[in-house]
Design goal:
about 20% strand
């Protein structure tokens, strides 16, 4: 959400920022609605004051036994009652329109975010490790199916496309990856492990920016209704629940409608959960394999910090995500996203891209974003120092530490040998005792 006062004071800044994110030309509409809203509020306050004054004068007129004046004043009060109703309706209409418009517009990019329209304009910040020298590398789908440990056909029969069944040692490897990531983030990086709900209300999805604009990308449940999407207002149905697209939703909303003492910040939270995405806008993209699934596991990192600490916390979070890839000895690069490629709620984002031998290129495996106070305003999440009266909005950050399925893909492809076996990275040996390779003679 945006501060309407800031939009009034610096309209050019917002127009330029939204244009950079693909939403130009909305400032004039916002200011017009804001003017209408304030006019209605002022008119309503003036009419209420006149009504109060007329009501007081009625008693005085009756005290003087001036029935004519009392009747005139009573007629005025009645007319003002109708005017108040009109002003209230105008205020409600303008307010609803203003809130709907402002809540549909993305966060403003930070000053150091590069301009650009899409991924081709992102800037490489650094890279780590050298791509593995693998002769004629197989992709993870071919490797997993040859080992008979990855079954897309069985998943499709029960769930449709973009699902997978993992079996045996491959299922163990995925479980080990998630446990390793959690242990690294909690034991070495100071994150607090959370086991959050994976079904949330609309208000929670609104708070982190998935609603209302991106409802088609989500899975929604509404008991007793044939189709929740047929409802005129998804936000108005209290029974509705959404499957989380990422634990960012659950973790960030832990501070919604709360005032967190500044002395307790930063809050660093992590969770390993299933994530659910409809992938409505991904038709025809990555249809083969595990890169883009409707259901996948992910270790999420969330930080809640004081505003002046968010930039440093962002860099720290990126380092925590990078540490996973370094421990697994997977080559990767860190990219600073341009304005046009950033997510809705982000003011600055780094993507980590891991090397996939079968594609001969780097693919996204983590996204770490600083959202500033954008989500906090939508959630009314504030902080204040003990003993002080004033509050201010916290800053929220989120990142993948990492997407477990994509990490499994990267391990399979980078650690494959010419016989189709998959070596176990050294960092995972404590989680898979006695297992050095997946595959081989059976």
């Amino acid at each position: 959400m945006h501060d309407i006062r800031a939009i009034r004071e610096t309209p050019e800044l917002y127009e330029k920022a939204w244009a950079a994110k693909g939403s130009p030309g909305r400032v004039a509409e916002i200011l017009a609605l804001d003017a209408t809203l304030r006019e209605a509020q002022t008119a309503g306050q003036t009419a209420q004051a006149e009504r109060n004054e007329a009501s007081k004068l009625i008693g005085q007129a009756k005290g003087r036994k001036d029935e004519a004046e009392a009747s005139r004043l009573m007629a005025k009060v009645e007319a003002l009652k109708g005017a108040l109703a009109d002003h209230a309706e105008a205020e409600r209409s303008a307010g609803d329109g203003l809130r709907a418009l402002v809540s549909s517009l993305p966060n403003v990019p930070a000053h150091d975010v590069p301009p650009g329209a899409d991924e081709h304009d992102n800037v490489e910040v650094r890279r780590w490790g050298e791509p593995f020298a693998i002769s004629a590398p197989k992709d993870h789908t071919s490797l997993g199916e040859a080992l008979k440990l990855m079954d897309f056909e069985a998943a499709a029969r029960m769930s449709g496309s973009r699902f997978v069944v993992l079996k045996g040692e491959l299922a163990r490897l995925e479980r080990a990856l998630g446990q390793f990531m959690l242990d690294l983030q909690t034991r070495e990086h100071g994150y607090l492990e959370i086991a959050p709900p994976m079904l949330v209300r609309s208000e929670a999805m609104f708070g982190t920016g998935q609603l209302p604009k991106f409802s088609d990308d989500q899975f929604v449940l509404f008991p007793g209704q044939e189709s929740a999407r047929a409802l005129p207002d998804l936000m108005a149905a209290p029974e509705i629940r959404w499957l989380i697209p990422t634990a960012e939703v659950s973790l960030t909303n832990l501070v919604r409608e709360q005032i967190t003492p500044e002395e307790e910040l930063p809050l660093r939270l992590t969770a390993l959960t299933a994530c659910f995405r409809a992938e409505a806008g991904a038709s025809g993209r990555d249809t083969r394999g595990m890169i883009r699934q409707h259901q996948f596991n992910k270790v999420e990192l969330v930080s809640i910090v004081a505003p002046e600490d968010s930039d440093a916390e962002h860099e720290r979070m990126v380092g925590c995500a990078e540490a996973v890839l370094k421990r697994l000895e997977l080559p990767f690069r860190t990219m600073l996203l341009c304005a046009g490629d950033m997510g809705f709620s982000a003011r600055k984002t780094y993507d980590l891209e891991v090397w996939l031998p079968s594609e001969g290129r780097y693919r996204e495996i983590s996204s770490c974003s600083n959202c500033g106070d954008f989500q906090a305003r939508r959630m009314d999440a504030r902080t204040k120092k003990t003993g002080e009266k004033g509050t201010r909005f916290v800053h929220t950050l989120n990142g993948s530490g990492l997407a477990v399925g994509r990490t499994l893909v990267a391990v399979m492809e980078n650690y494959q040998d010419e016989d189709g076996r998959i070596a176990i990275p050294q960092a995972l040996h404590p989680y898979l005792p006695g297992l050095t390779h997946i595959g081989g003679a059976r």
